[in-house]
Amino acid sequence: MKHLSILVPSGQMDLSSVACVVGTCEMFETANKYWRENGKSDLFKVQLAGVAKESRVHNGLVTITPHINIADITKTNLIVIPSTLTRSYETAEEGNKLMIDWIGQQYKEGAEIASMCTGAFMLAAAGVLNGKRCSTHWSLADTFRNSFPEVHIQVEKLITDEKGIYTNGGGYSFLNLVLYLIEKYYDRQTAIYCSKLFQVEIDRQSQSAFVIFKGQKEHTDDVVREAQIYIENNLQEKISVEHLSSKFAIGRRHFDRRFIKATGNTPLEYLQRVKIESAKRAFETTRKTINEVMYEVGYSDVKAFREVFRKVTGISPLEYIGKYNKAADIRRDAVR
User: What residue ranges in the chain does DSSP mark as E strands?
Assistant: First the structure.
């Protein structure tokens, strides 16, 4: 039988962390039960693992008691790190330093590791994410990127899977990661059963539609920041990267390099994301047609606008309106 360690970080848990721990435990135990009902043995022994006897959460509203101390686990096959409070791990409790070191050692010894939402910060602190792709909650992408520059953050991804390391996006999308792991370790039919029983949509690939793009200004490059502000104040204009680099008297290639270093996006990607974020807000709060919104954010070609919108959000403008503005009067002739 394989061993699953669901971590209970000391002093680093909130109610979302509790949801991750409880949800993961319940879904894996359900997968075991489904296998037993179909004549198979349990695949995983599921244990909550920590460094303290208990973890009190939300002023004592919830108390989680680990089954086992990590020091007593000699070998585990899969480690799940729940979402955590994202304060600096350099100043975290000593117990969490022990947990971080344990995570790194277990990975070296062959364990696979899955982080949920902000649990990616603890995973990255263990050093096992360097050079790998990673997702986390979209609202903390800039903070993560600045804290761990050697990790390739891909915030649009709902799930990443690389060399025995799994990460996922924010909030309760951890349930999608659990389904992904159940399919990988058990089989497709077990994952489908759990999906139906818990009513969690299977095969979700992106968290892009949920991202609220607030700009990436947590950097020290004043010229890039000025360019960002210029873009945001001139949404209706058809701004080219050549125009931007010329405006700020910087060569195109050097401007691209500085922009990517500061924001994680090329100037064109940033321009597109700002325009699409404005379009999303208009679709959510107004009754404007797709064409009207398209013109307002500086696009004149419907096909091009649709392609960029889908690239950024993962869905079409019409699908977005249907999802986030039920009261909108969708004029279908505007998108034909």
Answer: 2-8, 44-50, 55-57, 62-64, 68-69, 78-81, 112-115, 133-134, 152-153, 159-162, 165-168
Tens of pLDDT, residue by residue over 291-312, are: 999 999 999 999 999 999 999 9
Beta partners for residue 63, in sequence order: 56
29 and 131 in a single domain? The answer is yes
CB of 297 within 8 A of CB of 278? yes
Query: DSSP string covering 263-280, please?
Result: HSS-HHHHHHHHHHHHHH
User: What is the maximal distance between C-alpha atoms in the chain?
Assistant: 71
Distance between CA atoms of residues 239 and 167, nearest Å:
35
The secondary structure of 143-175 as a DSSP string is HHHHH-TTSEE-TTBSEEEETTEEEE-SGGGHH
- The pTM for the full model equals 0.76
Count the neighbouring beta carbons within 10 Å of the beta carbon of residue 98: 15
Amino acid at 84: T
Instruction: Indicate whether 187 and 287 sit together in one domain.
Output: no
> Whole-angstrom Cα distance, residue 147 to residue 158?
21
Comparing 208 with 303, the larger pLDDT belongs to 303
Cα separation values, 41 from 28, 33, 45, 46, 177, Å: 13, 9, 11, 14, 23
Domain membership flag for residue 295: yes
Q: Which tokens sit at 274?
A: 């700002």
Same domain? 64 vs 116: yes
| Mean pLDDT in residue range 78-97 | 73
The number of beta carbons lying within 10 Å of the beta carbon of residue 245 is 20
Rg (CA), the chain: 23
Residues 194 and 82: their CA atoms lie apart, in Å, by 20
One domain for residues 260 and 320: yes
Q: Which long-range contacts (CB under 8 A, 24 or more apart) does 296-301 make?
A: 296/235, 296/236, 297/235, 297/236, 298/235, 298/236, 298/237, 298/238, 298/239, 299/275, 300/238
In the predicted structure, residue 169 carries a pLDDT above the cut 80: yes
> Tokens representing 159?
């799930």
